[in-house]
């Protein structure tokens, strides 16, 4: 299985320029490849494929010498990204979903490049892990705050605000935990609960996280008051971006700890399938993204797989309307949090009842069904 390791890079000034230039060249190539596909599609109704576009790369490197400073596989990966954008587009069209045509990447909207075979070419750790040699950039200082494990597969160099990072993905052996026949259902909560379990536990986002969000809101208001093009506005924008990153890190940390706890205690964890959830419930898509459930479920699925545990995503339809004891179905307004089942007289809390229904549904799924979530 693949595991990601993210480390901060400390490039020198000339290296910074080379990193920015590499991003710029990759972005131009991305947009050119996109343009070619769009035109082929519009004019002839035919599609230009990944391999067809890949074949032009040596030619590009001969005619535009600046591309020689970028590793050929990094350029191939750019073509692959265009390909993936199109495949995603066609998949959504086919599924009858709302599908935006793949878009050109503006400046600042293209912030990473990838060495797809970093284990063999383009990237090399040096000086006992204090530096990393990147093709076209040079030997860049890196801080490995935790050791790299497994067999190196890919490396992505990434800009986040003013900082640069490298994300290695490595093939690691799963480390199964002892078998555990405990099972739990989780209902992805509405404020202030992040989730509610079938055992009645309510998990809130940590306080420091809520505080940081209040700070961010204040910084955003302050930014809105600054004059366009002014230096103060620039400063305020930096502050907002910095807080955004801090919150994203805190959220990820919270997700990791919570997922770890669940995986350590339960052999089977059932949750609502988010792909269906958006349509089935009166929660907006934005609310789903804000709480970061997709990220949490991806981390949970990943940790479970590593530990040999099972995570199951179930159809969330009616989970908040059914009585988990007798199955009586009744639609209630969202604000009704506690009620007594009119059929069997059980006192129920809405979210706990939903979590218990989710667990009951998972029990009917065939063993070994994994919820398919990509690791972020
Ligand atoms: Zn009942």
Automatic annotation (TrEMBL):
Transposase putative helix-turn-helix domain residues: 1-46
Residue intervals of the Cas12f1-like TNB domain: 293-358
InterPro entries: Cas12f1-like_TNB, RNA-guided_DNA_endo/Transpos, Transposase, Transposase_put_HTH
Residues in Probable transposase IS891/IS1136/IS1341 domain copies: 169-282
Entry's Gene Ontology molecular function annotations: DNA binding; metal ion binding
Keywords from the named record: DNA recombination, DNA-binding, Metal-binding, Transposition, Zinc
Superkingdom, natural source: Bacteria
GO BP of this protein: DNA recombination; transposition
NCBIfam families named among the record's database cross-references: guided_TnpB, IS200/IS605 family accessory protein TnpB-like domain
Family membership noted in the UniProt record: In the N-terminal section; belongs to the transposase 2 family. In the C-terminal section; belongs to the transposase 35 family.
PANTHER family: RNA-GUIDED DNA ENDONUCLEASE INSQ-RELATED (PTHR30405:SF25), TRANSPOSASE (PTHR30405)
Name by which UniProt lists this protein: Transposase
Source organism per UniProt: Thermus scotoductus
């Amino acid at each position: 299985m693949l595991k990601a390791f993210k480390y901060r890079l400390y490039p020198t000034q000339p290296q910074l320029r080379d990193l920015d230039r590499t991003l710029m060249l990759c972005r131009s190539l991305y947009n050119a490849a996109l343009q070619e596909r769009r035109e082929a599609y519009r004019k002839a109704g035919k599609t230009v494929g990944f391999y067809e576009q890949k074949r032009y790369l040596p030619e590009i490197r001969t005619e535009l010498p600046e591309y020689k400073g970028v590793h050929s596989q990094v350029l191939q990966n750019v073509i692959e990204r265009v390909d993936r954008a199109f495949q995603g587009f066609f998949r959504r069209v086919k599924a009858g979903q709302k599908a935006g045509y793949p878009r050109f990447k503006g400046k600042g909207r293209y912030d990473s490049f990838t060495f797809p075979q970093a284990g063999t070419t383009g990237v090399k750790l040096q000086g006992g892990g204090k530096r990393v040699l990147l093709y076209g950039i040079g030997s860049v200082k890196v801080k490995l705050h935790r050791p790299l494990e497994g067999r190196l597969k890919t490396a992505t160099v990434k800009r986040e605000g003013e900082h640069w990072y490298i994300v290695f993905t490595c093939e690691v052996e799963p480390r199964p935990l002892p078998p555990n026949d405990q099972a739990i259902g989780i209902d992805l909560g509405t404020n202030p609960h992040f989730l509610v379990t079938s055992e009645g536990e309510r998990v809130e986002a940590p306080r420091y996280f809520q505080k940081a969000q209040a700070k961010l809101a204040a910084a955003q208001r302050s930014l809105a008051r600054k004059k366009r093009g002014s230096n103060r506005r620039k400063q305020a924008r930096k502050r907002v971006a910095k807080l955004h990153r801090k919150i994203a890190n805190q959220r990820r940390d919270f997700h990791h700890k919570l997922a770890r706890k669940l995986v350590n205690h339960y052999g089977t964890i059932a949750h609502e399938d988010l792909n269906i959830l958006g349509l089935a419930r009166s929660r907006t898509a934005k609310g789903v993204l804000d709480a970061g459930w997709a990220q949490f479920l991806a981390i949970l699925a990943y940790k479970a797989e590593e530990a040999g545990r099972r995570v199951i995503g179930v159809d969330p339809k009616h989970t908040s309307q059914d009585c988990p004891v007798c199955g009586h179905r009744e639609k209630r307004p969202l604000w009704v949090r506690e009620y007594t089942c009119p059929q069997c007289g059980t006192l129920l809390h809405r979210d706990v009842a939903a979590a218990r229904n989710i667990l009951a549904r998972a029990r009917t799924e065939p063993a070994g069904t994994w919820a398919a979530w990509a690791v972020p």
